[in-house]
Amino acid sequence: MAADRAALGAFLRSRRDSLTPSQAGIEPFPGPRRVPGLRREELAVLAGLSSDHYSRIEQGRQPTISEDVLEALSRALGLDSVEREHLRHLAAPVRRPPRDDSAAQRADPGLLRVLDNLDVPGLLLGRRGVVLARNTLLTAVLGAPMEPRSSFLRWLFLDPLARERIVNWADFAAPAVGAMRYEAGRHPGDRRLAALIAELSAADPDVARWWNDRGVTDRTSVGKRIAHPLAGLLEFGIESVEKPRDPDQRLVIYTAEPDSSTARNLPMLAAWESVT
After folding, report:
1. CA distance 164 to 159
2. Of 99, 104, 256, 265, which has the fewest Cβ atoms less than 10 A away?
3. Could you tell me which CATH class the domain 109-275 is placed in?
4. How far is 124 from 249, CA to CA, in rounded Å?
């Protein structure tokens, strides 16, 4: 089975395994059940497909899949908008031109200007979580240099400081794995991304567990709670900005509530960072 179709079948199986007949609003089909989730034939009925048609899709034997069928499967499985888009990426034609991932990605000038004018922590990320740029407040808050060309994902999962600084680390890290899966669906030929995922999965059991869950997210918009050694607890909302024609890089902005202790501490952190 081609890699793309293997990923498609695995994603569909994971979604139907997590959806019981009662959750889907149907009576279970008769006969013994090996798993609590939907059977293939139950999902086929929900989506208005024949059992054979659905089996060919899940087993990677269906060369083309129409938009109507993808929409029917999405509705039957109760997929959210990100999961629906991920399903479309996986169902795209298998033969795609190889992705040229050798050239270094350049930061978008417009997003760089926005970053330079921020008075809150900010980070410009490219493909595979590569740091394209960051401001000094970001390094002051996270306690890591985050130099351009470094990997934010390697810091998040492999540096013990990340778990120390980010109080709600798991709440933030699990969606980061889902975002990697979403990117892998968009760029199935990206060998460097595949190698990074394999590296992180081998090094961190949390990554391996979340990856095997096959959850998918577009962006990690979960708020961050930072335990800072000087400023104490800092609480941020996380916003992502990207240009419609270049979804492969995004500006991540750490926002703080006006008049909050976090907002009052940021000027102190900026001054401290400038003299260290």
Report:
1. 9
2. 104
3. alpha beta
4. 7
Place of tokens 């800092």: 234
Residues of the chain with CATH 1.10.260.40: 3-91
Q: pTM of the predicted model, to two decimals?
A: 0.87
SS (H, E, C) the chain: CCHHHHHHHHHHHHHHHCCCHHHHCCCCCCCCCCCCCCCHHHHHHHHCCCHHHHHHHHCCCCCCCCHHHHHHHHHHHCCCHHHHHHHHHHHCCCCCCCCCCCCCCCCCHHHHHHHHCCCCCEEEECHHHEEEEECHHHHHHHCCCCCCCCEHHHHHHHCHHHHHHECCHHHHHHHHHHHHHHHHHHCCCCHHHHHHHHHHHHHCHHHHHHHHHCCCCCCCCCCEEEEECCCEEEEEEEEEEEECCEEEEEEEEEECCCCCHHHHHHHHHHHHHHHC
pLDDT per position as a tens digit, 201-244: 999 999 999 999 999 987 666 789 999 999 999 999 999 998 88
Q: Is 232 left (phi over 0), alpha (psi -120 to 50) or beta?
A: left
CATH fold group of domain 3-91: 434 Repressor (Amino-terminal Domain) (1.10.260)
Between the CA of residue 190 and those of 9, 76, 99, 109, 111, what are the distances in Å? Answer: 20, 31, 6, 25, 24
Start-end of CATH 3.30.450.180 domains in the chain:
109-275
